[in-house]
Amino acid sequence: MIVGITGKSGSGKSEVAGIFAESGFTVIDLDKVSREVSDGKGPCLDEIVCFFGEGILLPDGTLNRRALGEIVFNDEEKLLVLNNITHKYILNRMHDILNSVEGDIVIDAPLLFDAGIDKICDVCVYVTADTAESVKRISVRDGISTETASARLERQKGHVRNMDLCDYVIENLSTLDSLHKRTVDVIDCIRLRAVTAKKG
């Protein structure tokens, strides 16, 4: 079984994916995969530098993610170019991992639908959270101001449409204990659904 998890930045997707992992799922975190294919020297980074210039590199020749982020998060067209460059490398790496793993899998993918990853998923889950809490998480996680974090979230407004495309919605609105319970309930529903489908 393959479960896709998506949601806006700072919603708590990683926490939900971690709870799935506790239940025996193997997690493929596409944010981590993205860093793997773009941070180190290689064809993906070469393509990024070809378009954005060497100003996005650190002195050791690796990617300066903060510098690149300041460019793309203020320009939707450049963000689209970056996504077009990185997606093929991310998807190739994702399929390599899928082919090497057995059992139930969770794909943590911010662009689950935009990248067409939902097509290989048996179930899709959307994680949503209070905007103010999401802004705090992004600010702490990325070391940016709350104003910058808020602006990033604002540009993801269209992402909410994906909620209607998902089979389940998990609201991350209070405590971690509450999130854990909600997620476990969804996992139980997904497994029951899978068993019922096999019997049918």
Concise synopsis of the structure shown:
The chain is built from eight helices and five strands.
Structure commentary:
With 200 residues, this protein is of the alpha/beta class. It contains 8 helices and 5 strands. The two termini are 16 Å apart. The model has no long low-confidence stretch (mean pLDDT 89).
Kindly list the characteristics that best describe this protein.
8 helices; alpha/beta; 200 residues; 5-stranded parallel β-sheet
Give the SSE map.
Blueprint: E1 2-6, H1 13-22, E2 26-29, H2 30-39, H3 43-52, H4 65-72, H5 76-100, E3 105-108, E4 123-129, H6 131-142, H7 146-154, E5 168-172, H8 176-199
Parallel strand pairs: 1-3, 1-4, 2-3, 4-5
How far apart are the termini?
16 Å
Give the biggest beta sheet: 5 strands, parallel
Rg from alpha-carbon coordinates: 18 Å
Low-confidence stretches: none
Number of helices: 8
Shape: globular
SSE pattern, N- to C-terminal: EHEHHHHEEHHEH
Estimate percent helicity.
40-55%
Could you tell me the mean pLDDT? 89
State which percent range the strand residues make up. Answer: 5-15%
Widest beta sheet: strand line-up? 2-3-1-4-5
Which class of secondary structure composition applies to the elements?
alpha/beta
Count of distinct strands = 5
